[in-house]
Amino acid sequence: MHAVILAGGKGVRLRPYTTALPKPLVPIGDQHAILEIVLRQLSSAGFTHCTLAIGHLGEIIRAYVGDGSQWGMNVDYATEESPLGTMGPLLNLKDRLPEDFLVMNGDILTDLDYADVLRRHRASGAPLTIATYARKVHIDFGVLTTDASKVVAFTEKPSMDYRVSMGVYGLSRATLDGYTPGLPLGFDELVLDLLRSQNPPHAYEFGGYWLDIGRPDDYDRANAEFTTRKSLLLKGA
């Protein structure tokens, strides 16, 4: 099984931690970087090949990971000369990728079964599978519905339930047909194109542990929770 890890971003929202380090290499706990945890998980799940899409401070990532042999994997690299969006780096890799593969961000902590995402993607026949997570948002205000300057409905401090993308996807190589290598392509653009063509993505619903390390408070939470969740996150790794 093959995975592509997107690790080319500048990590602007996580500054100052990312001033000198690429975001996937910021430390979690006393011994591990985020990217190391992800690679250990992928290897434990049966992935044998991983491509790292690097850009900002990419040489540091390359020096840290090497060829991946320390985790029993074959790791190669694709370098972004300019930002290409979430899915854009895959267009330059297309000839190096198998028919179906996993794509994921390099800055998440989760006990998601990556191999099962890819298996379910293959079984679904969908062009894209999106791992999703349930979120609830509490609105701290009374919400009004108006029509022609008249209030027609009112809800006091409602909660909204919705599902978000976890930043982990099963993708089929043919889904990238028609897009131009070297040009930016975002996840949002790809999904909207699939919906317009009536070829919708498949949703993989997940209810375990998931943390997207996007901001300093997320990073602080990850470090606070890692000690108690280490056996969950690195089981079998």
Automatic annotation (TrEMBL):
Among InterPro entries, the record links this protein to: Mannose-1P_guanyltransferase, NTP_transferase_dom, Nucleotide-diphossugar_trans
Q: Which residues form a coiled coil?
A: none
**Origin superkingdom:** Bacteria
> Where would I find the Nucleotidyl transferase domain in this sequence?
3-227
Name of the protein in question: Nucleoside-diphosphate-sugar pyrophosphorylase
Q: Which organism is it from?
A: Streptomyces malaysiense
